[in-house]
Amino acid sequence: SAAEARFIANNPLSKAQHDLAVGTLPGGNTRTLLHTSPFPLTIKQGKDAYVWDIDSHKYVDFVGELSAGLYGHSHPTILRTLTATLSTTGLSLGATTTHEHAHAALLGARFRLARVRMANTGTEANLHALAGARHFTRRRKVVVFSGGYHGAVLSFPEGRPAANCVDAGDFVVVPRYNDLELAREVIMGVGEGELAAVLVEAMQGAGGCIPGTRDFLHGVQAAARERGALFVLDEVMTSRLAPGGLGAAMGLTPDLVTLGKYLGGGLAFGAFGGREDVMAVYDPRVEGSLAHSGTFNNNTLAMCVGHAGLKEVFTEEVCVAFNAKGDAFRERLREVAKGTKLVFTGRGSLIGLHFIEDGEQEITCGEDLAGKERKDLRDLFWFEMLEAGFWTTRRGFVAMILGTPDEELDRFVETVRAFVDRHRGIM
Ligand code: PLP
Questions:
Q1: pLDDT value of position 344
Q2: Which CATH class for the 2-70+316-426 domain?
Q3: What's the pLDDT at 53?
Q4: Annotated active-site residue in 53, 261, 341, 379
Q5: Nearest CA to ligand 1 atom 7
Q6: Count of CB atoms within 10 A of residue 72's CB?
Q7: pLDDT at position 162, please?
Q8: CATH architecture observed for domain 76-313
Q9: Where are the beta strands (DSSP E) in 20-79?
């Protein structure tokens, strides 16, 4: 397309870097999601709520490190804590520290977790939570949902475990998210005494920013318990949407919760926690407990920076105001896109963008989108937003950053309006 041709012409250094990188990294890439055709932009720097590529274009950062970059690139509290931790405490100490306790206590209070353990990523948090659930229940099977993303080796696109899913045979996938009847059928269909856990997101994040309904989530929680299984809520993406996480806002009472992303202040981070009796499977004083190791589980930088961010910056009040701003932003975008193929989903500060044949159609799960997505329009949108100085994910995802100037949000709304007007004939 003409937009793609302009992209190639405007980004010679990114193209050259990609040509070089493919000689070292498969596809020139180390995070599959970040690959974009014909080549990805190479980003060289971030400051506040902006990033710059190596061809020196400046963008408003709407990728927000897939929600981990909540604080932006240079929040003073984050930078100050990083520097202070480096100079006074040092790096990972290979020892129990007060820092891990302080952060665990704060996470526990905020997200109502009786006991907490740290990990390095959201993927790890989910792997450990499931291992704990299996050990506690002495069962193996786990029910998950189509479109669910719980980490690199725990994803379930299109109704089945991805090719690299671990223990794929132990997962039973409900073929539609937000379909309680189907979910109950699948949960009750797992053999008596076999179901260890039901693992679900309160809003599918990578699956398209599709919120779960209250009835669906409560029904799934009840069905899990009826079957004697643990209800595990993946809040890696959604914990930022409400002061106690999206689960608390929905009135859910999960047995285990997994966390990650911004809760490490922008550094690699994961955590899991919940019921005292379940988490006791990780108590090393108990004979036969599970080993939960990990060299960097309690690394001082993530512990201290994550703690300072949550305690001093992303307070409950800030969380509420930030997500209200996100809701208002989404409403303005919806208004602009009314009557077109562009649909905005999500909740609070997380926004999904979809181009579908019938823009009036309700989106309740990934299957609603199957065969109806207009990838050509989505690509055109991505190229043209880049030209206007907005860095979004190619697949259609915006994770807002604290401190993005209101004028940039206004400018984005106007840029989307201009896009819709310019392409009215095909929209
Ligand atoms: N769970 C959910 C809901 C996620 O969105 C993600 C990451 O996008 C993960 C788990 C995995 O987290 P990480 O990328 O830190 O391993």
A1: 98
A2: alpha beta
A3: 98
A4: 261
A5: 151
A6: 20
A7: 98
A8: 3-Layer(aba) Sandwich (3.40)
A9: 43-47, 50-53, 58-61
